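Running low. Got one?
___
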Amino acid sequence: MAGYGRVFQATLVGALFAAALAPNGDALAFDGAEKSAAAATRPLEIFKDPRQALQAALESYSAGNPASSVEALKYAAAGGEPLAQWKLGRMYADGDGVQRDDYKAYEYFQEIVDKYDEDTANWREKSVVASAFVAVGLFNLKGISGDRLQADPEEALRLFLYAATHFSDANAQYQLARLYRDGAPGVPKDHMQAARWLNLAAEKNHVDSQALLGQMLFSGDGVPAQRARGLMWMTLAREGASGKAQEWIHAQYDQAIRAANDNDRQAALVYLEDHLKRRY
């Protein structure tokens, strides 16, 4: 880990230094291809218990056959397996191996939330439960078309807040911060609260949180401006961003680095080096 930290530090410091010189200044793994191939062609069997059905379904899914895993997942979900409920929720939300159906996705995620009990919780399933709370929160925030679920931002706030505090889940903290930053009916804007939750998630290397916190600090968006610290967070986010969904992070960084002056860049380097020393 220490070696990785030095390489990562060198990459980020190099990015900021180059800018300063510029003139414009989910998952379970299963062993063996043979096992996965067998799962891909195996007909639905009678399982001895929900856990065995879940195992077989995940093997089939990992072999590239999501549709063939659905019945086994439903068997496991009906037997109370939270991971099966979560997987079905994601599949229906994404139209992955099934026809997309937001309400069915919502129902599977809601089942996890409804059955969660702090006193008897299995902490090995912590990430699955936290993700379900966030998913149900997002459905409540936006609602589901066809009047199947009315938007309820206050319920979304409650769900995000629970997952952000009880599970210390970075994605929940990010969604909570977004809600405080943007506001919604029944949820007034609170930029200071947004920055607080973004900072907690950013410290966990949540890339979107790093980018949004950086933008808020750099521009003084509802919080006292801290341009160098904001530039540091945007630099970290830029290095961690991947895929089309996070292209905005690169664009945001490019705009900020052009607007930054020499003092901003040099101070950001100091903050960056200190941050990486603390982490690695």
About this structure: Confidence is low (pLDDT under 50) at residues 1-11, 20-44. The CA atoms of residues 131 and 172 lie 8 Å apart. Residues 2-21 form the longest helix (20 residues). DSSP finds 14 helices and no strands in the chain.
